[in-house]
Design brief:
The strands form five sheets. Strands 1, 2, 3, 15, 16, 17, 20 and 21 form an eight-stranded mixed beta sheet that branches. Strands 5, 6, 7, 8, 9, 10 and 26 form a seven-stranded antiparallel beta sheet that branches. By secondary structure, the protein is of the alpha+beta class. It contains eleven helices and 26 strands.
Length: 490
């Protein structure tokens, strides 16, 4: 069965088994088609090559069969003018993109690379998540991954990248790179996501100490829940409050989430801060488990979410009810920390909770990306091609499936807050964390205003030095699977 991605989907190897661009994330919602759903793809003819035109024609056929918005596809489009499979896909989906329904969510990727990432977080790079601020031409580290080169070299949350080069002599300031080509020039300067790639970086850490050193990219695995700060129980004015930060929805997140909620359950925690502020999405099944862990007081006949395909594929529609988990808790109040980088599977979890907790939950930070659709993955293994096609919409028990401009307007409560990178994630004094704890304790707040810009996925900018209401995640023109699912990663 193919994996359904609320931001991404695993392979639909034979429809038998079963996750962004811009400033937010085209993170996927991957899903598995229901048992018996779909049809087995026709085998490629003997002698089929992996020529560009053959791959493009295959992509057209898959879109023609599965695309959620078939009325927007051209009846025919010659692939000849297009130099890559992706540029042809972009041309095929241009109408839906112009309508804000497919913001580069449909794409071609590597089967091997995506499988490795979705299973364990395997990727290659420095191991940092970067954001940028165009008006001030500055780049900051939002997060650093354990076991990766950057953290070992002293780069962590709050670090500002000042200059980048292949050697000390070739260092270029970030300001100069922005002047040459904006954020794309910075991304290009950091080099390809291959182990062994080295760059000289000049950076200033959160304490103000400036360092110049060589950092080499390496193979590593992103831990979905950080062992440093990802799970905490915080005393919030006498109420023990659970905090969990999830970086991405992948297979290896599931045991970590179970462990976290077992800690909360054993401690009697019923108030939660769930930090999804940069989480671009991932596997639907992981999102469904997350919602189950929030559903100890739900019944098995209560709807968690509904997946809807196009009319011709309606046999694959699925209603998913809550499923009891040994680690589940029954929350009384929940604060979800989000930004424009919170997309897809992140939004799926939040949306699933609205019918049951709306009066006692809030969105804190800034508005989400707005991705109520997900992809299936269709494979052509001979060419290592997986096409992620927007093929289904997701809705909650109340039928809410129209939040292309973010979830803020779908909730009764929201609290605007900055993302303060001066302090670690999960620190009670960090701006979004403090506002979330305040909501849980009954403090008043200013609602989130404005909707996301579909091109940049950023809200009205409020930036002062390192504190910003909305930065944009740095994403290369051709992201790896890890960079799609964990936007901003390098």
């Amino acid at each position: 069965m193919a994996l359904r991605k609320s931001g991404s989907i695993l392979a639909l190897a034979a429809l038998l088994s079963s996750c962004g661009g811009g400033g937010g994330g085209s993170g996927s919602n991957s899903v598995s088609l229901p048992s018996g759903g779909g049809s087995t793809p026709t085998p490629a003819p003997a002698g089929t090559t992996c020529s560009l035109q053959s791959r493009q024609n295959w992509a057209f056929d898959q879109l023609d069969e599965w695309y959620l918005f078939p009325e927007t596809l051209p009846a025919s489009l010659s692939p000849t003018p297009y130099a890559s499979v992706q540029s042809y896909i972009d041309a095929l989906t241009a109408t839906a993109r112009g309508q804000g329904r497919d913001r580069y969510f449909t794409y071609i990727t590597s089967i091997a690379e995506e499988n490795a990432f979705l299973a364990s977080g395997a990727t290659a790079g420095f191991g940092i998540r970067l954001s940028y601020d165009s008006p001030t031409s500055r780049v900051f580290v939002l997060d650093a991954y354990e076991g990766a080169p950057a953290l070992a070299a002293g780069l962590d949350r709050g670090t500002e990248i000042l200059a980048i080069g292949t050697s000390t002599a070739s260092l270029q300031t970030v300001t100069a790179l922005f002047a040459q080509g904006g954020a794309a020039a910075v991304s290009n300067a950091l080099g390809p996501s291959t182990a062994g790639t080295s760059r000289v970086l000049r950076f200033r850490n959160a304490a103000g100490v400036e360092t110049t050193t060589t950092v080499s990219k390496a193979d590593y695995a992103i831990q979905p829940v950080s062992p440093r700060y990802g799970v905490q129980i915080i005393d919030n004015g006498g109420t023990m409050t659970g905090y969990v930060n999830l970086r991405t929805f992948i297979d290896s997140a599931e045991p970590q989430l179970r462990d976290a909620f077992l800690q909360f359950r054993n401690a009697g925690v019923t108030e939660l801060v769930i930090d999804l502020r940069y989480n671009g999405g991932g596997l639907v099944r992981t999102a469904e488990l997350f919602a189950d862990l929030l559903g100890r007081d739900r019944f098995a006949n209560q709807v968690q979410g509904v997946t809807r395909f196009r009319t011709s594929k309606a046999a694959n529609n699925e209603t998913r009810n809550f499923q009891a988990q040994a680690q589940s808790i029954a929350p009384t109040r929940i604060a979800f920390i989000t930004t424009g980088g919170s997309a897809s599977a992140s939004e799926l979890v939040i949306n699933a909770m609205i019918p049951y907790h709306d009066a006692n939950m809030a969105l804190v930070g800034s508005n989400t990306f707005g991705k109520p659709v997900g992809q299936i993955g269709l494979d052509r293994s001979a060419c290592d091609d997986r096409i992620r096609i927007v093929a289904f919409a997701t809705e909650n028990a109340d039928g809410n499936a129209n939040y292309f401009s973010g979830l803020a307007s779908s909730l009764t409560n929201s609290c605007q807050a900055a993302d303060d990178i001066n302090l670690p994630l999960g620190d009670p004094g960090e701006a979004s964390m403090a506002r979330a704890l305040g909501f849980l304790s009954g403090a008043a707040c200013t609602p989130i205003s404005g909707v996301l810009d579909s091109a940049t996925a950023s809200t009205t900018r409020v930036a002062t030095g390192r504190t910003s209401l909305a930065r944009e995640l740095l994403i290369p023109a051709q992201p790896t699977p890890a960079q799609r699912e964990v936007p901003g990663s390098f």
